[in-house]
Amino acid sequence: MIKKIPVQQLRPGMYVTDFNAGWLDHPFVLNSMKIDTDDQVQKVLDSGVKELFVDTTRGFDVSDAPTREEAAALTERALERIGEVEKPKMPERQVSLADELLRAKSTFSEATRIIRGVMDDVRLGRQIELESSRVVVEKITNSIMRNGNAMQSMRRMRNLDDYTFLHSVSVCTMLTTFVQAVGIGVPTIHDIALGALLHDIGKMRVNLTLLNKPSKLSDDEFMHMKSHVVLGSDLLRQMPGIPKIAFEPLDLHHERFDGSGYPNKLKGEEISEIGRMTAIVDVYDAITSDRCYHKPVGPAEGIRKLFEWSKFHFDPALVQLFVKSIGIYPVGTLVRLESERLGVVIEQREANLLTPLVRVIFDAKRNYYITPEEVDLSKPMGAGGADKIIGHESPGKWKIDISRFLQ
After folding, report:
1. Mean pLDDT, range 190-215, rounded to an integer
2. Could you tell me which residues are beta bridge partners of residue 34?
3. Distances, alpha carbon 301 to alpha carbons 170, 287, 315, in Å
4. Phi then psi for 106, rounded to 5 degrees?
5. CA–CA dist 90, 74 (Å, integer)
6. Could you give phi then psi for residue 20, rounded to 5 degrees?
7. pLDDT attached to residue 384
8. Is the C-alpha dihedral spanning 256, 262, 268, 272 positive or negative?
9. Domain boundaries, the chain
10. How far from chain centre, in Å, is Cα 318?
């Protein structure tokens, strides 16, 4: 039986089946292993892991610990209550999703090309020119103002080879959407978006072989990788004209609410609101993206992880607002329904983010396209609903071009 326990209950003789942390956030090569010594227990405690899963059939039990299913049920009930959170201050949509898609696609591609160029300049020691970055973050903001779902859907149409650059653009896009939800004005949003686009620029000053290493980093390699925050901050501070608030996404995206982050181990409100928001966005994009050393989790599972970790690592109120701003199943997500059909999420339902409006397009059981049909999962049988999401699917696996069905 798999159970979830606080890290303080870990002891030798237990078998950890999941450290319940990002791949780089625990000190062991594998994500499941037998704990044999007190030193190993101490390493886990020192890593910042707060809760983990143990297999009681392969090691010692904790009699009063919840099972994995019981813990998941608690998270699910919390997600259902997200609809009760005050609606974010999102701008009124000026155009339809279909009308904005082409512009969003062009802007996302332009932003990826520009951040690639900036990072190449840093890596090669050339002078950095940031004017094009300022222009493209204005385009991103304007697209989100017109219809934020279009830019959000772009991050599901990317490939593994460009992860470093696409991650920068995705964090910029999601943080821009997020800061709008807390009522920040447009000029300031442009400055924050610039910082988000450049938040990982310091990675071009670490050993590049570590960026795509397909296995666990050693302790020394991890320490070197963590230096990218300070290296990037030092680099940009040498450049004139960068607004102070633009440094917050860069300086603070690896700080954690409980003080377990880096580089300064800031805690709680010692981390600015923008820093706390960027940490949420950065982790969500990382765990839901395909990377050389791990497979992504689905968007809903990514949200569930953020919820679990928000008890310790993230500001819980901001996690709820983030979920409300992008959805549990963001627009453009390919989902599998209980009816064995596949559909693309095309709109959120604010009262319950687990029941969005879906455009059903494919019969997974018979493996063929069907006539597209819009199904509102928040409605009962006979009113256009009566189906349920049971998971998310990879568009690549089914060779489905999501963009065709968002128009």
Report:
1. 91
2. 15
3. 18, 9, 18
4. -65, -45
5. 29
6. 60, 45
7. 56
8. negative
9. 2-66, 97-326, 334-405
10. 14
Q: pLDDT band at 86, cuts 50/70/90?
A: low
Q: Can you give the pLDDT at residue 114?
A: 97
Asked if 121 contacts 384 with a C-beta cutoff of 8 angstroms, the reply is no
Cα dist. 117→138, 239, 242, 364, 380 in Å?
18, 17, 18, 41, 51
Instruction: Classify domain 97-326 at the CATH superfamily level.
Output: Hypothetical protein af1432 (1.10.3210.10)
Exposed, middle or buried: residue 232 (CB in 10 Å: 0-12, 13-18, 19+)? buried
Q: How many residues in the chain?
A: 407
pLDDT at 218: 82
**Which one, of 251, 205, 257, 211, lies nearest residue 229 by Cα?**
251
Write out the two tokens for 123: 């890596």
Judge whether 106 and 169 are in contact, CB under 8 Å: no
Which amino acid, one-letter code, is at 392?
Answer: H
**CB 378 within 8 Å of CB 387:** no
Q: Which amino acid is at 107?
A: T
Q: pLDDT-derived band of residue 371, with 50, 70 and 90 as boundaries?
A: very high
- What's the pLDDT score for residue 360? 96
Q: How far is CA 105 from CA 100, 159, 399, in A?
A: 9, 14, 19
pLDDT 10s digits, 144-194: 999 989 998 888 766 545 788 999 999 999 999 999 888 888 889 999 999
What phi, psi does 151 have (nearest 5°)? -65, -40
pLDDT, tens digit, 9 for 90 and up, residues 106-147: 999 999 999 999 999 999 999 999 999 999 999 999 999 999
What beta strand segments (E) does 134-249 contain?
Answer: none
